[in-house]
Design brief:
Elements (H helix, E strand, L loop, with lengths): L1 E5 L3 H12 L3 E5 L12 E5 L5 E2 L2 E2 L10 H8 L6 E4 L9 E4 L4 H22 L8 E5 L3 H12 L3 E6 L2 H9 L3 E4 L10 E4 L8 H4 L7 E4 L9 H6 L3 E4 L3 H5 L1 H17 L2
Parallel strand pairs: 1-2, 1-3, 3-6, 6-7, 8-9, 8-11, 9-10, 11-12, 12-13
Antiparallel strand pairs: 4-5
Helix pairs in contact: 1-9, 3-4, 3-9
């Protein structure tokens, strides 16, 4: 079994190295160069996560990444092969595994995402985390871990969640809780969004502290009305793909572990 890694960044290099260390035969295309490889023995293809950027494969280390059509044509791969990668709208593959739906990868990525978010907080505010009032929107894998880490550093944490059971769980862990339908930003110095739906509308943002820092940790379209935030002169810090930025080796190994699990269960 030979696994082809197409496109990607430092995480992909780490994932490739990890899988090789586990005894897999691996090769790459459009990772550090766009030289075609012999695809006759390819058993599965791993695409980047996120997969596309401006209509082309997410491959920041090469000058002209291919489109999906060019990848298929240049390598001659079958669209019936198992393909694993980030979300792709209207893709041509019949056996596609969307990594964004994998709960195991979400849990693994939560660790490095939270570390990156805390680093952003430390380097972009003039307050100590100890005693800071923080609001975390969403109580999934990232929201839970982020709330716990912030609290362990001495912050006062409130969780905004849609589901009542999540709000109850948050209070059982010592956090404040509010319904996202009744968001109130007054008094919070740091607001972390983990929900990929716009919750922080102009109306909500108008009531935020002028010096509050808003952290966007959700995937597109995110949860912050960016136009309103800019007009209201609120500071917004983006944190997409934090695992690959703050800990690419760990993030790559986490990706590889998920890919291996997928392959073993095909």
């Amino acid at each position: 079994m030979t696994i082809l890694f197409a496109g990607g960044d430092k995480r992909t290099l780490s994932a490739l190295a990890y899988m090789k260390s586990q005894g897999f035969s691996v090769c790459s295309y459009a990772l550090t160069d766009r030289v075609a490889v012999d695809a006759t023995s390819i058993s599965a293809v791993v695409l980047p996560f996120p997969c596309l950027k401006n209509g082309r494969l997410n491959a920041p280390q090469i000058e002209q990444p291919p489109t999906l059509s060019e990848l298929i044509e240049e390598l001659g791969i079958s669209t019936d092969l198992p393909i694993i990668g980030g979300p792709i709208p209207n893709h041509p593959f019949s056996n596609y595994v969307d990594l964004s739906l994998r709960e195991d990868l979400k849990l693994r990525n939560a660790v490095t995402t939270v570390e990156g978010a805390v680093s952003l907080l430390i380097h972009n505010t003039d307050r100590a985390i100890f005693g800071m009032n923080c609001l975390v929107l969403g109580y999934g894998a990232i929201g839970k871990r982020l709330s716990s880490v912030l609290s362990s550093l001495g912050a006062s944490v409130t969780v905004a969640a849609r589901k009542q059971k999540d709000r109850v769980d948050a209070t059982m862990h010592g956090f404040g809780a509010m319904d996202v339908k009744a968001l109130e930003l007054r008094g919070f110095q740091a607001v972390f969004n983990t929900v990929p739906h716009v919750l922080l509308t102009r109306e909500i943002l108008q009531n935020s502290e002028p010096d509050a820092v808003l952290f966007e940790l959700a995937s597109a379209p995110g949860g912050i009305d960016r136009t309103a935030a800019a007009e209201l002169q609120r500071t917004v810090l983006d944190g997409p793909a934090l695992p690959g930025k703050v800990a690419p080796v760990t993030a790559g190994e986490d990706l590889a572990k998920t890919v291996i699990d997928i392959l073993q269960n095909l």
